[in-house]
Amino acid sequence: MKPAVVRRVIKPALFVACLLPLLSILWRAFELGGSNLGANPVEQVQDTFGQWGLRLLVTTLAITPLRDWLNAPWLAMLRRMLGLFAFAYVSLHFLTWLVLDQGLHWPSILADIAKRPFITIGFLALLMLVPLAVTSTNAMMRRLGRRWKTLHRLIYPICVLAVWHYYWQVKADVREPLVYASLLGILLGWRVWKRSSRL
Amino acid sequence: MLIKRPRPGDSARIAPSEITAEDVYFNRRKLLKAALALGAVGSVATSTASERATLRYTRNERYSTDEDLTSFEDVTTYNNFYEFGSGKGDPAARSHRFKPEPWSVTISGHANVTGTFALEDLLKPHALEERIYRLRCVEAWSMVIPWIGIPLGTVLRRFEPTSKAKYVAFKTVHRPEEMPGQRGRVLPWPYVEGLRIDEAMHPLTLLAVGLYGKPLLNQNGAPLRLVVPWKYGFKSIKSIVEIRFTERQPPTSWHLAAPHEYGFYANVNPNVDHPRWSQARERRIGGGLFDSRRPTLMFNGYEKEVASLYAGMDLRRFY
Questions:
Q1: Cβ <8 Å between B276 and A108
Q2: pLDDT tens string A56-74
Q3: Could you tell me the pTM of the whole model?
Q4: Number of separate domains in chain A
């Protein structure tokens, strides 16, 4: 794939695709076309944002292995956009919880972050995403040099925390979180295998 | 069906002559066919949809809240009924193959009268009442639902539980071919629940057959379910096929699945949190995107009626 095609066609298309979940939520929130957010709209919005945050995190993590398997170096050009959209959806997920679900009721919010392990680890994952988003610009990459790569390895623990957060949140049906856990296992396992086989 | 009111002076008890013998019950189709073949019956009256379309009942004001009702749409599309799947929309979307009739319930254990009874016979002697109850799910959301049913206690007394009947155990039907959620092992099937006998006999405890004036839909636990309004929703077991009087505390499904998270009592209690989330506040379904949570009330607002059942008990320990 030529870089120009990626820049002019694939990246704009990906940008629009990544906006679709947000647009679908807005569409349903305004009940356009007779649609709606169901009986529990707050839960619906929060779950949708959380799900897409997790999907995009895992997709970001899949870029490097896919690039190798498909021999498609251009895929790496999509990674920053995917990562930033993951951060955006995770932030929207958190803000939905803060504002719509908890109604900015600070005593409950602080108690939940401190006392509920699944919320604690979710919050921790969000905090760790912040420096990655802030340092995602070209200028920051140049400024940080070699340390940039080290810093961005935070994505591995972030993904583990995110899947764990999801696993801990469900009541009994853990099948979907286990799908994410398996994908994560493959993506991280491949990196370990690659590293050890290079030695 | 379901509409006969007891005549004044009727005892609550089933006369032995009213109980269909088990062998007759199980062979009822054969008997009907035989009768038809002989021309003895002009038309066969099975329970048809039109017959089920409306229920006759009277509102019980004493036990009804005057809060705004949750819409019929929300009550019938946002459900936890894992037998049909663990998503909230699964019960409405995946329960169309379930056949709630004919239905029978087995009464067993420590009681003088036991056996298997057609649902019609079980309900016949009783008048239906409507009760508008709050329903509080353990997931911290709530609804206000106009149920139609009979106080469980008046039904149970007909079977004359003995002094050994300390608890009542309930079982949901197990039909993986009609209930797709039962094909996965998300919970141990069949679903089981239980109450202490005094909880079961409490006038608030309802054996429901309908809501919003109509027979229960499959997703709401057709054709017969429990409603225990001061306990978290999972105690209100659906599609009941067996009621057993026991001497020991019976096992309950969610307690088996996660014992430190779901207790036998499961009384609504804003002061005792679920290990993974707070129970202090709840979201009322139907409030929309910008509705804030409201404080959860002790025993879901039924404290005056039921607190005495738990006098002296440590509700943190017996959660």
A1: no
A2: 999 999 999 999 999 999 9
A3: 0.85
A4: 1
Name the CA dihedral angle for A174, A178, A181, A183, rounded to a multiple of 10 degrees: -150
Q: What angle do CA B104, B108, B113 make, to 5 degrees?
A: 90
- Chain B segment 189-208 residues within 8 A of A by beta carbon are none
For testing contact with chain B, the best of A35, A42, A49 (most B CBs within 10 A): A42
The string of pLDDT tens digits covering residues B117-171 is 999 999 999 999 999 999 999 999 999 999 999 999 999 999 999 999 999 999 9
Please check whether residue B286 touches A, CB under 8 A: yes
CATH no., domain B16-310: 3.90.420.10
CB contact under 8 A, B86 and A173: yes
Separation between Cα atoms, residue B210 and residue B223, nearest integer Å: 8
Q: What is the ipTM of this complex?
A: 0.89
Chain B interface includes A101 (CB < 8 A): yes
Shortest CA distance from A176: residue in chain B? B86
Contacts of B258 in chain A (CB under 8 A): 171-172
The better pLDDT of the pair A178, A3 is held by A178
The answer to whether A128 faces chain B, any CB pair under 8 Å, is no
Residue A77 has pLDDT above 80, yes or no: yes
* pLDDT, tens digit (0-9, with 9 covering 90-100), for B78-131: 999 999 999 999 999 999 999 999 999 999 999 999 999 999 999 999 999 999
**Interface touch B186/A168, C-beta < 8 Å:** no
What pLDDT, on a 0 to 100 scale, did the predictor assign at position B25? 58
Block residue for tokens 């067996």:
B242
> A42 contacts in B (CB within 8 Å)?
283, 289, 291
Q: Is B318 on the interface with A (CB under 8 A)?
A: no
Domain span including residue A142? 3-198
